[in-house]
Amino acid sequence: MLIGREREVGKLKELYESDSAELVALYGRRRVGKTFLVDSVFAGKITFRHSGLSPLDDRYADESSRKSRLGDQLKHFTQSLALQGLLKSRKKPSSWLEAFYMLEDALQEKDNGVDRQLVFIDEIQWLDTPKSGFMTGLEAFWNGWACHRPNLMVIVCGSSTSWILNKLIHNHGGLYGRVTSQIRLLPFTLHECEKFFAAKGISFSRYDITQAYMAVGGIPYYLRLFDRKLSLPQNIQAIFFDSDAPLREEFDELFSSTFTNPDTMKTIVRALSKKESGLTRSELLQETKIADSGEFSKQLKALISGNFIMPYCSYGTGKREELYKLIDPFCIFSIRFVQTNVSSHLQWMNIEDSGSVTAWRGLAFENVCFHHAEQIKAALGIRGVSTKESLWSRRGTEESPGAQIDMIIDRRDRIVNLCEMKFTADMFTMKSDDHFALIRRKSTLTEFIPRRSSIQTTLVTTYGLTTNEYYSDFVHIVTINELFAF
User: Fold this and answer.
1) Is residue 378 very low, low, confident or very high in pLDDT (cuts 50, 70, 90)?
2) How far apart are CA 443 and CA 455, in angstroms?
3) Which residue ranges form the domains of the chain, and what is each CATH number?
């Protein structure tokens, strides 16, 4: 059952019904549901489909084996043609150029000139092995033949967002400007997670759904691992920590299948996990001991395009002070709890109420809120107002203490929402320490906002705010129910 994805489904159907050749780039991180989306929308309509072979095989660990990698990919492509009745001869092509010629011949022979032909190439980045000539073959296929066939639609799909962006969408060679449509498939929102769990017969509360999101993000494949017979803590145990837990090794597999340099990428991500507010480029270089180069810039860009990290300028600062922050929920949870307990038999039920888990929940909820900024804006009644969301932190000096604000919404109507995030099991109660801390943050922020702007304090929490002498500290109160809005 396909949950959500209304916009993407509508776009794919519209492209399928068009009267021109279409080259569609569908991309998004591993396990987000790209293949499932195509299979659901085009069941029984795919003329030819092929998926690249994963590079995880140990035989391919050595660069000297690249010819074997190319040979296996071509052999697999030939098998796909044969299984789908599109191969006259079992002769394996000697290059990607020849392989695409074979595909052209097969499609042309099957074409009746009326019905739409749909070619689906999945995990396309795995086909582009070193020095394989894959891009030359793809370019020749599209420019020399496919783009001239109005009843042909080609969907190329990849889990490496950086590969899709660099090699296809922003291609500077023969495929420049050739992609007719691009669709980025994002993780589920809380609203979609709730619908997904309901479809599986899982009756979690919104409090528990939010915690599930904190651990795995809105990744459909991860969400489908939850068992309706188990409580949330039991599910976390079974999914991450049992000896046969399906996501026990997923962190390494995620990076190996997405990046050509997984170890370097994991080093960057682990370094960022140590600093909740993020690190500057120079701090990140110092922490990781990676050489400062153009290659490092590409690595950061790849992590950003894959939605693992985000760059941001703390409110009131310039580009030179840009920070990089880890924002992927699964990576944050995995590094904090799974990676540090690989050799032990951690029992989640035994640490669920510990200080470390409570601290993680607080920080993870801030991340959830940042992923649902649009829902917060809707709750504030400013969805149509132009805004810019950012974090804000000021490091302490000898003269003044540091301060940090979970999220700032800088609005065009000259209002700045100072947002505090509090994840609690019941209504949040402001205490005197919280009251004076909020006053200090507001006072410090006043120094940075334009004179014509004003600050509105905003609380985003689970169940609201108890009424006491500090209740009026907040102008707006947003609860998780509003984060679940469509």
Assistant:
1) very high
2) 10
3) 6-184 (3.40.50.300), 190-248+342-363 (no CATH), 251-336 (1.10.10.10), 372-483 (3.40.1350.10)
